[in-house]
Amino acid sequence: MTAQPATDTATRTPAPVTGPTVNPRRHRLGGLIGLVAALGAGGVLLALPTADPDPSPGTQVRTIEQVWPDARPVEIPAALSDGPAYSPVFFLDARASVGTAPSPEGTHLRLVLRAADGTIRELRRLPIADGPVYAGFARDGDEFAWAESVPGADGHGRTEVWAANLATAQPARRLTADTGDVVFFNSQYDMVINSGRLYWASVAPDEETATEIRSVALTGGAVSVRTEQGAWSVSAYPWLVSAGTGTSGPVQLRNLEQRKVIEVDATGSELVTCSPTWCRVLVLAADGPGRIELMRPDGTDRQQVAGGVATAAVIDVAVLDRFEVVSLADAQRTATDSQQLLLYDVREKRTVVVSDGSGLVLCRDGILWWSTGGSDVTAWHTLDLRTLK
């Protein structure tokens, strides 16, 4: 359940399939998460020329073991202890996670908490026949929240927001069904928690160019709705990011608390996606992608991340305000074939190889994970970026 940012103009690396995806053109969805493709959006996959092994010309690429000898990626089995295949959607640490899996009898799609020792706790289950979707995951301490949608025969299905305490055995609780026409991008900020409230973005009814910023208390209750003119997505609270790219319009950052707006300059040959602290710039060459760069929203501290053979492997820009997650693949490879997974370290201005055989790639809350085994995932691997000093 993912939607693409405005820079997502080509094919892309898929994320684990947890359900349908959100329409990047912000069509009204009748409260449902709209279908973009069976493949999720793990990142922006560019049309690649013949691969160049060096993602940043003139830079010697080292492995993660060489740069951070104490960093050890963790391998997670691709199936649960009760049998079905498992797709993690949020890691609590390098081993414990929340994810989706069918029930052993194949009748329901479950959202489960998988502990470090492999034991599972079921948070929710919905009939597979109804085409359920889990999306928009957010965590604050022991509180974990998500959205779930079930399509309707008339195209106007049901979306609800739920939460559970991961430290207790209490059942999950519904926070609200008053969600609006939800817009998700497979970003770690699709839903954010701040001061005991959960925030998300929806398309404003009867206003194609307006966005509702909705919120509800983690204890439930009435939903607060704030309408912002323009097409926006939620970023790190209290920021919103506009849907402009530099070619379709200027990229803007809006602070909900200070009413502050930052406009990011971009040329007609650049596609820009921003967080409050960094912007990813896809600089286009005459015959296709030229290179990936990072810069501050004010245009300073600009630095090259990779050449045109690279892909931005996740939606979010410079996770932890430090690491840009990048993949390399030949043009002949499919999105789920082996890719070289790399981290560009903004602080040290260096590129580090994480894996030479990655497939699906995701990153949330500072933990990077990827699959191996091609389209038939055989294992998941995690790396806690917060431990890299």
Explain what this protein looks like in three dimensions.
Helices cover 1% and strands 44% of the residues. It is built from 1 helix and 30 strands. The protein has a 5-stranded mixed β-sheet with strand order 1-27-26-25-24. Strands 11, 12, 13, 14 and 15 form a 5-stranded antiparallel β-sheet that branches. The two termini are 33 Å apart. The N terminus is likely disordered.
Short note summarizing the structure:
The protein is 1% helix and 44% strand. It is mostly beta strands and 389 residues long.
What key phrases describe this protein's structure?
389 residues; 1% helix; 1 helix; 5-stranded mixed β-sheet; disordered N terminus; 5-stranded antiparallel β-sheet
Could you report the average pLDDT, rounded to the nearest whole number? 83
Strand order of the largest sheet: 1-27-26-25-24
Distance between the termini: 33 Å
Low-confidence stretches: 1-58
Please state roughly what percent of the residues sit in beta strands, choosing from under 5%, 5-15%, 15-25%, 25-35%, 35-45% or over 45%: 35-45%
Specify Rg, calculated over alpha carbons.
Answer: 20 Å
Largest sheet features: 5 strands, mixed
* Count of strand segments: 30
Helix percent reads under 10%
By secondary-structure content and strand pairing, the structural class works out as mainly beta
Overall 3D shape:
globular
Q: Count of helices? A: 1
How is the topology of this model organized?
Elements: E1 62-63, H1 64-67, E2 74-77, E3 87-91, E4 97-102, E5 108-114, E6 120-127, E7 133-140, E8 143-150, E9 158-165, E10 173-176, E11 181-182, E12 191-194, E13 197-203, E14 210-217, E15 224-229, E16 232-234, E17 239-242, E18 251-255, E19 260-264, E20 270-274, E21 279-285, E22 288-295, E23 303-307, E24 310-312, E25 323-328, E26 339-345, E27 350-358, E28 361-364, E29 367-372, E30 379-384
Parallel strand pairs: 1-27
Antiparallel strand pairs: 2-30, 3-4, 4-5, 5-6, 7-8, 8-9, 9-10, 11-13, 12-13, 13-14, 14-15, 16-17, 17-18, 18-19, 20-21, 21-22, 22-23, 24-25, 25-26, 26-27, 28-29, 29-30
